[in-house]
Specification:
Distance between the termini: 40 Å
Strand order of the largest sheet: 3-2-4-1-5-6
Structural class: alpha/beta
Radius of gyration: 23 Å
Number of helices: 7
Helix content: 25-40%
Largest sheet: 6 strands, mixed
Shape: globular
Number of strands: 9
Length: 227
Amino acid sequence: QVVCTQPRRVAAVTIAQRVAEESGQEVGGLVGYGVRFEDVSNQATTRIMYVTDGLLLREMMDDPLLSKYSVIMIDEAHERSLATDTLLGLLKKIQRRRQGLRLVISSATLEVDRLVAFFDSSSVRGKVAAAGVQHVSHTPAVISITSRVYPVQVHYLLQPCSDYVQAATQTVVDIHRADVPGDVLVFLTGRQSAPHVLVYGSECGSHMQPHTRHCIKTSPCGCWLWV
């Protein structure tokens, strides 16, 4: 069984839903997720689990070696939350006891050299040999995936704003009125800001001309997409 951790609840749920959809399965079958107070999985059929890092820590209280997982993936490791850092330290110890365990740590902005040095167990070979325990050296492999790079222009407000949500929505409306081709994706700090964007955006849309008025869609991650 494969488990992949996410730093936030909404990410674990939405990614599990997307992977299940891509696999042509229902959530809770081949692909499941587990968050606080909610477990959508089946012990007999689920092979890919998406959980929060805090939930995986809770599982370690009952199963310290996480024996039911053969592959453990820590996603978004660069966020360096308390739960994520604790997991990395405990997984290093677990890997010494479980030679067949595979760890995958992914991040877009992680300090790779430090992480490789942390998980490189070749330096403990002498101590383990002296204790009479069979040891297999684990030298981490680094895989770098190069993505497309697009030109980015950064614009700043000339004056501070009291309501960043309203300012962001007004900026999207201004871009839309300028008839710039393409869509606009707005990242917000939390789900609680999304309804305010919808209300303000709808008010602005009601004052537009019919031929320039378009619909507002929401993405699963809680951000808002204007088309």
